[in-house]
Amino acid sequence: MTHLQKLRVASILKWVSLNFYENHLRSSTTPFQPIGSFSNAQSPRLYRTKRASEDKDSENVDKSSTGNEKKAGQISSSIKEEAQAALLDYLHGTRGVQFMDAENMSKNSPHFLDKLLKRVDSEKEILMKKNNEKEIGREISRFLRYHPINEFEPFFESLGLKPSEYFPLLPRSLMFLTDDQLLVHNYTVLCHYGIARNKIGKIYKEATEVFQYDFEVLPSKLKAYEKLGLSQHTLIKFFVASPYLLIGDVNVEFVKALENLKSIGFETNWIEGNLSADSSYNWSQMLKY
């Protein structure tokens, strides 16, 4: 395999990713489907078109988040640690969220934590006081005791989604993670499989229906892909780059594309090395080359 041929296939992978994004961004008319709904379409729709009101709301969330970041920078690390500890204690001790998940939510949801701090501090103005670390922790614990939070906000943010990305995905009638057992179960399956928590958000955004599979469905899909002879490490990269592979049966175009690339000398590890977890790929496009 010549260096020129490798460069050509690498450029095709990049083009397929960009083309896939642009096509779905331009032509998708599928409205957002809330948690609990299922699509009847056989082909995956990776990029949903948000309604005008959702676009406006998302823009507002982005602007608010940007402002929060600037203000959050003024909050000392010791205060953040106390706030994180109080949120962790609430999620795990009071709400019964698994410790690892509660810890991830408390440490990796800066926008939500900043919003929580502002709600707690709006009356007490504790942040203006000196040596206020312990006091802010106690006030957050007291606040959470009487003001339950929407747990999906820190949950989605801890999975790597920005507020503007997870805002349209928030369930309209649920506040607690325990109210959506299938979501939590399928998220746990992906975690145990080895997919990083901050990459699971991309899978949720692009293949939401995966998180409403019944209890044995997702593990069986993962095993079906392993039967192709691909390692778990390799499959993780493919699933993150192409979340729609987890929708339906083993994706035929994906299998054919891999076979075609192997037939001209490209091994799976080379293909894996040229994938970007931040992009999305339509493997059927590869069959045109």
Integer-rounded radius of gyration: 21 Å
- The beta-strand count equals 0
Tally of helical segments: 15
The residue fraction in helices comes out at: 55-70%
Instruction: Determine the strand fraction and express it as a percent band.
Output: under 5%
Low-confidence parts lasting 5 or more residues at pLDDT below 50? Answer: 3-55, 64-73
Shape: elongated
Distance between the amino and carboxyl termini: 16 Å
How many domain modules? 2
The description of the largest β-sheet is: none
* Content-based structural category: mainly alpha
Reading the helices and strands in chain order gives HHHHHHHHHHHHHHH
Let me know the average pLDDT. 77
Describe the structure.
With 289 residues, this protein is mostly helical. The protein folds into two domains: 1-28 and 180-289, no CATH class; 75-177, no CATH class. The chain is 62% helix and 0% strand. It contains 15 helices and no strands. It is elongated.
